[in-house]
Amino acid sequence: MILLFDVVERHQGEIERRHGDQLLPSHRQALQAMRRYRRQGSDLMVLQCSNCLHRVKVPHSCGHRSCPHCQHHESQRWIERQQAKLLPVEYFLITFTVPAQLRALFWSRQRTTHDLLLKTAWQTVDSFARRDPKLKGVSGAHAILHTHHRRLDYHPHVHLIVPAGVIHQQRQGQANGKEWR
């Protein structure tokens, strides 16, 4: 098995040489964290199975949110927590992508443009739900901002998981005035 440490260690000089002026401080912190942990000779912790008492030694994790080794368990737990919140309805996945022509602007003003991308995506879904003649209600959504493509190119986009329905405001006098449809 190839350790992430080995990949970072082997290619960091080339990454710095080719892309050093484009690396953000957060990128450098991620690379440094991944270099410190999960390597041959680093501190080890002992994990033991409570059923068979089998033991295995594994390197400490770096804990960085970009590290696939460290975050697999956390991402699985996050997915389970999100699934527990789902309503018993169908869902749609909607993706809003920044055009290639605007990516340089987004790169240079990430804090502002990422915020605008999330807000604009939500406002679009909300507007459709409120104005659609059959729906005319308040929708919900779960949004996830992705800043990079699988090839690790800068490619900001937002995924929204939207329920196939809205909360509809009914006339006064009915049970708490709301109905799901």
- Largest sheet properties: 3 strands, antiparallel
Strand content: 15-25%
| Number of distinct helices | 5
Mean pLDDT: 82
Across the major sheet, the strand order is 3-5-4
| Helical content (DSSP H or I, runs of 4+) | 40-55%
Give the CA-CA distance, first to last residue: 50 Å
* Total count of domains: 2
The radius of gyration is 22 Å
Succession of helices and strands: HHEEHEHHEEEE
- Strands, total number: 7
Pairing-aware structural class of the strands and helices? alpha+beta
**Apparent shape:** flat
Low-confidence stretches: 171-175
Notable characteristics:
single chain; 181 residues; alpha+beta; two-stranded antiparallel sheet; 7 strands
Question: What does it look like?
Answer:
With 181 residues, the protein is of the alpha+beta class. It is 40% helix and 22% strand. The strands form three sheets. A three-stranded antiparallel beta sheet has the order 3-5-4. The chain has a two-stranded antiparallel sheet with strand order 1-2. Strands 6-7 form a two-stranded antiparallel ribbon. Helix 1 (4-19) runs antiparallel to helix 2. The longest helix is centred in the middle third of the chain and has 22 residues, at 110-131. The relative contact order is 0.10. Mean pLDDT is 82; it is low at 171-175.
